[in-house]
Design goal:
Gamma Fibrinogen, Chain A, domain 1, 2 domains, 12 strands, about 20% strand, flat, coiled coil
Length: about 350
C-alpha cells in the first residue's frame, strides 16, 4: 500500500515537472517573440534619443543667450537714459552761461555789428545800381528788327531771353520763324510740353513754342505768313494780317487771323477758334492721335497738316505734310510758318 502511494507521488511529480518544463519553454518563446517585436517598435525612438538630448542642450543654450541679451539691453537703455540726462544738464548749463555772458558780449559786438550793417547796406545799394545799369546795357529787342539769321530777343512774360531765327522771306522786313519743316530729323508728333516750350534745331526743323507765340502776339498785333514748297519746286503762300492765339489755360486757341491774302486755299480759317491738341493732350475725337500730328483741331476732317509726318518724296498720304488744293494735296518738300509785328 505504501509502495502504491510512493508510485503515485512519483508519477504526480513527473507530470508536474513535465508541465513546468513545457510552460517555461513556451514562456521563453513568447518572451523572445515579444522582445523582437518591441525592439523593432522602439528602435526609432531609441535612435531619436540622442537627437532629443542635443536639441534640449541647444534650447538651454539659447535660453542662456536670451537672458544675457536682455541684460545687455537693460544696460544699454540705462546708458542711453544717462546720456540724455547729461545732454539736458549740459544744455541748461550752457544756457545759463550764455545768459550771464551776453551783456558783456553785446557791449563788445554792438559797434562792430553796426559797422558791418552799414557796409552791407552800401554794397546792396551799389549792386542794385550796377544791376540796373547792366540790364539797361544788355536790353534785348522783342522782334527781329532788321536782322536775319539767329537773333536773341526778349518778350514780356518770358523769364529769360531766347533765340529765334529771322528770315526776310518777303524782302521787306524780317520774320520770326515760328515753325519749319525741312527734313525728317525732328519728330513733330510730339508732347504737349514740347509744343508749349519749343523743340528741334533752330537751324533746321524746329518749333518755337506756343507760349512764346502767345506772348509775342499778345503784346501787339502780329501777322502770319505760311510758305509752302512742293517737291517739283512750286511755291505757295498764305498770309493773315492779325494772328493771335490765347494763353495755355485756353489751350492756345487760334483766336484771330485777320484778313487772308495768298495764292493757295485759305486753310487756316477752317481752324479759327479751335484749340491746339497733341497726342497726350488730345480732343474728344482723338484727332491728334489719329493724324500722328499736333494742330488746332475742330474735327478730324482737316484741310492741312503742317505738323504731319515728313516724307522724303511726294506721295498721297493724309498723315504727311500737305495743304488742301496745293500740289494736288500730296506731301510737301518744306513748309515754314513765320510771324512778325504788323506794319
Amino acid at each position: 500500500m505504501f509502495s502504491k502511494y510512493i508510485l503515485l507521488l512519483f508519477l504526480a511529480f513527473a507530470i508536474k515537472k513535465s508541465f513546468c518544463e513545457s510552460f517555461c519553454h513556451n514562456t521563453k518563446k513568447l518572451d523572445s517573440e515579444c522582445a523582437s517585436y518591441c525592439y523593432e517598435a522602439c528602435k526609432p525612438l531609441l535612435q531619436m534619443a540622442p537627437e532629443c538630448y542635443r536639441k534640449d542642450a541647444e534650447i538651454a543654450k539659447l535660453k542662456d543667450q536670451v537672458a544675457e541679451l536682455r541684460k545687455q539691453i537693460a544696460i544699454q537703455e540705462a546708458k542711453d537714459s544717462l546720456c540724455i540726462s547729461q545732454r539736458s544738464v549740459v544744455s541748461e548749463i550752457k544756457a545759463l552761461f550764455d545768459k550771464c555772458s551776453m551783456p558783456d558780449k553785446m557791449k563788445d559786438t554792438t559797434p562792430k555789428l553796426k559797422a558791418e550793417t552799414i557796409l552791407k547796406e552800401t554794397k546792396v545799394t551799389e549792386l542794385t545800381q550796377f544791376k540796373s545799369k547792366f540790364n539797361e546795357s544788355i536790353s534785348y529787342p522783342d522782334n527781329c528788327e532788321q536782322s536775319t539769321g539767329i537773333k536773341t530777343i526778349q518778350v514780356a512774360g518770358i523769364l529769360r531771353p531766347f533765340q529765334v531765327f529771322c528770315d526776310n522771306i518777303t524782302n521787306d522786313f524780317p520774320w520770326i520763324v515760328m515753325q519749319r519743316r525741312v527734313g525728317r530729323t525732328v519728330d513733330f508728333n510730339n508732347y504737349w510740353y514740347n509744343y508749349a516750350n519749343g523743340f528741334g534745331d533752330i537751324n533746321g526743323s524746329y518749333f518755337i513754342g506756343l507760349e512764346k507765340v502767345f506772348r509775342l502776339t499778345y503784346t501787339q498785333p502780329y501777322e502770319l505768313y505760311i510758305h509752302l514748297e512742293a517737291f517739283d519746286g512750286t511755291i505757295g503762300h498764305a498770309r493773315y494780317n492779325h494772328f493771335l492765339i490765347s494763353r495755355e489755360t485756353g489751350q492756345y486757341r487760334l483766336s484771330q487771323l485777320g484778313n487772308f491774302t495768298g495764292d493757295v486755299y485759305d486753310a487756316m480759317s477752317d481752324y479759327l477758334n479751335a484749340k491746339f491738341f497733341t497726342f497726350n493732350n488730345d480732343s474728344r475725337d482723338r484727332c491728334a492721335t489719329k493724324m500722328s500730328s499736333a494742330w488746332w483741331y475742330k474735327s478730324c476732317d482737316i484741310s492741312s497738316n503742317l505738323n504731319g509726318r515728313y516724307s522724303d518724296f511726294e506721295i498721297n498720304n493724309a498723315f504727311g505734310i500737305w495743304w488742301k488744293n496745293f500740289s494736288g494735296g500730296r506731301t510737301l518738300k518744306s513748309v515754314k510758318m513765320l510771324i512778325r509785328p504788323a506794319h
